[in-house]
């Protein structure tokens, strides 16, 4: 892969104002892609980090629960830069509760943002990708697209559904220059996860380092976090020529979580 090999291409990364999405967006930007940012985090900070890498950025505040706003986001990007070349469906939320106590409105929100939004973005970008016979669709599906954990019914259902959507999209584009794949991370050290670690340390009366080991030891044999930048490098690899025939995979970066 040559530096800047994505120059001239447009990447839409949902949920990209912080965390995993911002890490992936920055790595794509380093490879030359201009970035459409979406999310509810620190927008100006995210854009400045992207543009410091020498590429242009746009921002759209689409609520990923609302198909009309998603459509407006895709139209805005197309009006500025033409069809989307790279789509990263990263937006997601979490709620934890047993099935029989799970709030219905939370279920609806998790399914809408983690699964249905990816369907809407995919259906909207595919015509432009078909026009140029090139495209990359990457669904950030989580290790919970492959295995389950208790009290995460909506999240696990959505992520399993996202892996299924990935496979169908890959089959429907199999004879084209468009690929669709899922990336399934385990624990990723983001500000949100760091808050979980800090809370565990406080509740258990242990150090942050001890709480980190407690968290990782529950699921992740490597005892180390994946970083947003590592996920970004995998995304860039899948966008390269080496990814031309990677189709419909659920590629886990989970430190051995699903190998157990």
Can you give the helix content as a percent range? Answer: 40-55%
Distance between the termini: 33 Å
Strand portion:
5-15%
At the third CATH level, what is the topology name of the largest domain? Rossmann fold
Note the quaternary state here. single chain
The CATH homologous superfamily of the largest domain is termed NAD(P)-binding Rossmann-like Domain
Fold and architecture overview:
The radius of gyration is 18 Å and the shape is globular. The protein has helices spanning 19-30, 43-51, 67-81, 104-132, 153-172, 191-204, 208-219, 228-239, and strands at residues 10-13, 34-38, 57-60, 86-89, 135-140, 178-185, 250-253. The chain has a seven-stranded parallel β-sheet with strand order 3-2-1-4-5-6-7, sandwiched between helices. Helix 1 (19-30) packs parallel to helix 2 (43-51) and helix 4 (104-132) packs parallel to helix 5. Helix 5 links the parallel strand 5 (135-140) and strand 6. It has two domains: 10-188 and 227-259, NAD(P)-binding Rossmann-like Domain (Rossmann fold); 189-225, no CATH class. The protein has 260 residues and is α/β, with parallel strands linked by helices. The chain has eight helices and seven strands. 47% of the residues lie in helices and 13% in strands.
